[in-house]
Amino acid sequence: MSQKPEVVSTIKRSQGVVSSLLLTESSVAVVAIAFKSNQLTGEISLIGLQSPALRNPVVFDVYKNPKLYMEGQLHRVFQAEKLIKIVHDCRSFCAQLKKLYYITSHSMFDTQVAYTLQMEENNLPPRLISYENLHKNIVGLHIGTRFSYVKGLEKSDGNLWNKRPLPDELLWALTEELNSLHNSVYPLMFRSITEGNVEEFELRCGLAARGMSRTGTGRVQTRSGRVATSTTPLLTINAMQAELLPNTKPIT
Questions:
Q1: pTM to 2 decimals?
Q2: Span 193-212, mean pLDDT?
Q3: What is the mean pLDDT of residues 203-215?
Q4: Is the pLDDT of residue 90 over 50?
Q5: Which of 9, 125, 190, 246 could, after both became Cys, cross-link 61 (CB 3.0–4.6 A)?
Q6: 80 with 61: CB under 8 angstroms?
Q7: Inter-axis angle of helices 145-156 and 131-139, to 10 degrees?
Q8: Three-class SS of the chain
Q9: Pairwise CA distance, residues 70 & 231, whole Å
Q10: pLDDT over 70 for what percent of the chain?
């Protein structure tokens, strides 16, 4: 059964959670990360984490206490090279961390990058997809009722994630998202990356972690081993392409 996440807002508790998470730094470990921001300003409000190294999901309230980044040692999570950070569309968040706190992120597994790469492998133009629709396309199910409910609230309240005290429905929705990312989406996306494109995937994730992007380079191999031709107009689509295209939008 899912556990409501622990909300961390003190420096001492933040240091303790980070230490627990990095105890396994001598070997490669994974952590799912969900960023929540003010819809009006783009400023990060919460950072949710889930990992086997933690008893329950943890939410760092960086809106209430920005000192968690440096004094609370949260920066070490993003900088740890042996800790794989599973995240969807990290580019803008990582750029914000670097600009405001000089935090350079490493070892990001970006599911947005993985999905656009999968599209190019199947001779489709690289397109963007929301996390909600990514989960729907590859898992075949909705994330959860709480997540969907909160997504509806976001559309009418740009300050939703800045509300304090944090409403329980936000924390439960964040739990559903972290569970989905760690337990369902990551294993499927990890297996979707073909051997010939591992290097390209890692390169793109590294660029995303620095706030940059790279798509449509002509360096992606299709599953047949040929170079992708993602700029070719689509006159007909096959079954795999039909599964990947729904709910995506052009890269602008």
A1: 0.89
A2: 94
A3: 88
A4: yes
A5: 9
A6: no
A7: 150
A8: CCCCCEEECCHHHHHHHHHHHHHHCCCCEEEEEEEEECCCCCCEEEEEEECCCCCCCEEECCCCCHHHCCCCCHHHHHHCCCEEEEECCCHHHHHHHHHHHCCCCCCEEEHHHHHHHHHHHCCCCCEEECHHHHHHHHHCCCCCHHHHHHHHHHHHCCCHHHCCCCCHHHHHHHHHHHHHHHHHHHHHHHHHCCHHHHHHHHHHHHHHHCCCCCCCCCCCECCCCCECCCCCCCCCCCHHHHHHCCCEEECC
A9: 44
A10: 88
Coil vs helix vs strand at 137: helix
Pick from 156, 155, 118, 130: nearest CA to 244: 118
List of E strands, the chain = 6-8, 29-37, 44-50, 58-60, 83-87, 108-110, 127-129, 248-250
Asked if residues 33 and 85 have their Cβ atoms less than 8 Å apart, the reply is yes
Residue 36 has which token pair?
A: 């929540």
Number of other residues whose CB lies within 10 A of the CB of residue 230: 22
Question: Which is nearest to 217 in space by CA: 191, 251, 243?
Answer: 251
Tell me the pLDDT band of 4, cut-offs 50, 70 and 90: confident
C-alpha angle 154/155/161, rounded to 5°? 20
Q: Is the pLDDT of residue 218 over 70?
A: no
93 vs 187: CA distance, rounded Å: 23
**Which of 192, 205, 172, 211 is closest to 85 using CA atoms?**
205
Cα 114 to the center of its chain, rounded Å: 11
Count CB-CB contacts under 10 A for residue 197. Answer: 23
